[in-house]
């Protein structure tokens, strides 16, 4: 039972601290849509998505009105298309992406994820077709998001896939060069991808999931920041306890919304993802939390330790509030979506190398980072390889969502709008890694992967 005091606290968090439910994401299995004929397959997935999610947006809007909690996005994730469409007789999955986009627009969701492939140990024919389709698919659609998992702690890293994704990211940037290379903002490369992540661009509905499920992603950097302002100068034990208590309260809000959405839609409740995902709004920044913790800027010495504290205690507080915490839960550090991170980059406090170090202890990885459009595909592959290695060795999810902005160089700005914000073009290490990337093959899993 939620007490009167909790209701008052929640209202205050919503009104003054930018608390929101970042997304309600409906996961939908497309396994029963498999067919060899493209026209039949597309019709089946369109019918299933529009039937399953016909009330998703309205339910979200109704819950916003009833509870007074902003629900920023309503989204859909589907079975990785390289699996669902594996039986098609075709050399391109672009028509499938167009069908997903059409279905997303029909039901009114903001994004649909699952134009994805899982290639950590090797490629199927469907995987190769999907990956080669990504640049065009993201150029001709508005709401489709794509992901490719290139490694895992149990399988190692598929370096052939890493090499290919450097080329695919650059081609995606070129296909959307007239829009600030925004196609790359809808494409993420993973190591240890999770099957129940409600956040884009990496969401897909895993093959171990139910037929249909509701996952909710809650955010709240502003709430954590305000709570920490109350304990400025106190010791680390007090700092950690404050973060845990705040995360507990935020998770309770998400639990309430998730259970009610599940009930109204008649769809099982899956997980709460308690990820501190910032927005471009003032007061809704991870970087500002670091400043309240005592750092002059994000990127200053101590930033990685501060992020480790934040990430760990957010998870501890969330787990106490709900038995169904999942997804990526922790702290995200996207550059373009966080005005404090942008300012830190512009002031020279935050570099790509420092961001890479921070990914060792945060929820995901190098996220929404704009780099010069002249960056080579081998350099992009090298960046992916580094992040995948961090994920593989540390048995955690890491990812790269990097945007080589065609026609722009270091110091310039690219505008994406909305939740994606804007980003300064960051410098990239210019030393060559081509001979390393060209080796190909697979990096074997680390020794601690053998746990059976």
TrEMBL record:
Entry-linked Gene3D superfamilies: 3.20.70.20
Coiled-coil regions listed in the entry: none
InterPro entries, alphabetized: UPF0210
Subunit structure: Homodimer.
Similarity comment: family membership: Belongs to the UPF0210 family.
Xref: HAMAP family: UPF0210
Protein name according to UniProt: UPF0210 protein ACFQ3W_05500
């Amino acid at each position: 039972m939620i007490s009167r005091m909790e209701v008052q606290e929640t209202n205050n968090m919503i009104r003054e601290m930018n608390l929101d439910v970042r997304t309600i994401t409906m996961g939908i299995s497309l396994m029963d849509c498999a067919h060899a004929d493209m026209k039949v397959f597309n019709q089946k997935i369109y019918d299933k998505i529009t039937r399953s999610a016909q009330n998703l947006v309205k339910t979200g809007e109704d819950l916003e009105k009833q509870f007074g909690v902003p629900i920023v996005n309503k989204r859909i994730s589907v079975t990785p298309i390289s699996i669902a469409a594996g039986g098609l007789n075709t050399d391109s999955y672009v028509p499938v992406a167009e069908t997903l986009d059409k279905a997303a627009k029909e039901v009114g969701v903001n994004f649909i994820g699952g134009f994805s492939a899982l290639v950590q140990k090797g490629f199927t024919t469907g995987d190769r077709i999907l990956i080669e389709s990504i640049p065009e698919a993201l150029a001709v659609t508005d709401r489709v998001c794509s992901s490719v998992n290139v490694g895992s702690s149990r399988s190692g890293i598929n370096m052939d896939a890493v090499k290919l994704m450097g080329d695919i990211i650059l081609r995606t940037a070129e296909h959307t060069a007239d829009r600030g290379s925004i196609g790359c903002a809808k494409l993420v490369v993973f190591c240890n991808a999770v099957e129940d992540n409600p956040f884009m661009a990496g969401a897909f509905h895993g093959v171990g999931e139910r037929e249909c499920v509701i996952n909710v992603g809650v955010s709240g950097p502003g709430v954590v920041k305000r709570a920490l302002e109350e304990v400025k100068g106190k010791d680390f034990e007090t700092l950690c306890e404050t973060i845990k208590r705040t995360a507990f309260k935020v998770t309770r809000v998400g639990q309430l919304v998730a259970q009610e959405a599940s009930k109204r839609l008649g769809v099982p409740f899956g997980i709460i993802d308690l990820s501190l995902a910032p927005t471009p709004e003032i007061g809704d920044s991870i970087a500002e939390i670091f400043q309240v913790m005592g750092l002059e800027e994000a990127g200053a010495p101590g930033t990685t330790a501060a992020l480790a504290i934040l990430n760990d205690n957010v998870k501890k507080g969330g787990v106490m509030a709900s038995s169904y915490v999942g997804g990526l839960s922790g702290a995200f550090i996207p550059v373009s979506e966080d005005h404090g991170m942008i300012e830190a980059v512009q002031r020279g406090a935050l570099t790509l190398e420092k961001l890479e170090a921070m990914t060792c202890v945060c929820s995901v990885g190098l996220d929404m980072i704009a780099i010069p459009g002249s960056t080579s595909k081998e350099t992009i592959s090298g960046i992916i390889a580094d992040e995948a290695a961090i994920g593989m060795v540390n048995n955690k999810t890491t990812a790269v969502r990097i945007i080589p902005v065609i026609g722009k160089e270091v110091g310039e700005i690219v505008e994406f709008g909305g939740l994606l914000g804007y980003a300064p073009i960051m410098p990239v290490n210019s030393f060559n890694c081509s001979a390393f990337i060209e080796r190909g093959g697979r990096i074997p899993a680390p020794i601690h992967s053998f746990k059976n």
